[in-house]
UniProtKB/TrEMBL annotation:
The keyword Mitochondrion applies. It comes from the Eukaryota. This is LAFE_0D00804g1_1. Gene3D superfamilies: Medium-chain alcohol dehydrogenases, catalytic domain, NAD(P)-binding Rossmann-like Domain.
Amino acid sequence: MQEIVENRAVAFKTRKGPNEIIAEKLDLDSCFTDDEIVIKVHAAALNPVDLLVKAYAYSWIAGCEPKTLSRDYSGVIVRRGKNIKEFDIGDKVVGSFDHLFGKEGSLSNYLTLDPKKHPSITKMPSFGDSEYDDFVLNAAWPLVFGTAYMGLGLLDKSQNLGPDSRILVIGASTSVSNALVQIAKNHLKVKSVVGICSKSSFERNKELGFDHLVAYDEEVVTDGVKKLIDTEFNGGKFDLIFDSVGNSDFIPKIDDFLKPISENSYYRTIVGDAKLKYTSPNLLKTFKPSETFRRFGPFKKYNYRNYLLIPSNTFMVLGAEMIAKKQFVPTIDSVFTFEDHTDAFNRLVSNKAKGKIVVKIA
Ligand SMILES: NC(=O)c1ccc[n+]([C@@H]2O[C@H](COP(=O)([O-])OP(=O)(O)OC[C@H]3O[C@@H](n4cnc5c(N)ncnc54)[C@H](OP(=O)(O)O)[C@@H]3O)[C@@H](O)[C@H]2O)c1
């Protein structure tokens, strides 16, 4: 017998308009192709990219049709196409659904996807005893874990960081950096990871694995990090500087902080050179054209990458493995109900979240 369900989603029509719950009927038996699965979503997590996507949803690019928000999801497979071999009905899965201005997003009751086209998916690992249920914790990790994985040069294999490496993290409190420090310390066994964050986040970030912290609200961060290089590292510089907030303070004196390019050191950023305003994101303000010649071309002075997450299954496999070995736990800021989606987005816009903001759906 045909099963028709109601599919509700948090969507927006125009960049200045509100996010609202929309609903449509979904025929569960005909809504998928032979290569697709249908997931009943239990939880989804918000990411600042949702704010960016909305800010740039000009009607001449994105139209005025409803666009569903969010990427990270956890849920249960309720239908599968006949060509799907790796998943079964009833499997609990976790992933990140990559889309831009799409009708489908993870803030919805059901998600229909082709796992080959959306490879950031795996069977859901269990966290064991925890304050949060497995669906909440699982929705909280794919996008930030994948971004951290790329930040460590693991996807393109551009760097081989290990016990002799030193990493500087600008923005130690962000969810991406929370994942990065756990991969660096627990998987790669990196000796020293230094983070920059507010003084009030020191205790929390130490518990996550940072070896040293410098407070951006108490001292000039370049002075604080230089002091550490001289006193703790005997003058040794960093193999990687990873920026997850948009701070260009280290750029003018990069040779004082980053090892030479001949030692395959990297400066990687996921935001550019300036802090993105969550209330009115403007990507143009995050580029520093004056650095172009030092960053690109045959005479570049340092390895620089400003990158976007590339969907992949490899980081999902590592994430699930690390969770099973209790080497990685995503940090949760807050959990909201589907109906309270506006409060969830207000929390994201505050830029004060300590960990992921998760919305429970099922
Ligand atoms: N390129 C990509 O593919 C990609 C992927 C994911 C995210 N991103 C971007 O990466 C950024 C971080 O995302 P997220 O979700 O990890 O962040 P988040 O969890 O929302 O970060 C919130 C934290 O940032 C810290 N912070 C705020 N202002 C700061 C400042 N001036 N200096 C240092 N820390 C500051 C705050 O902690 P304290 O002030 O207590 O330290 C706050 O708790 C966002 O801009 C996002 O758009 C890019």
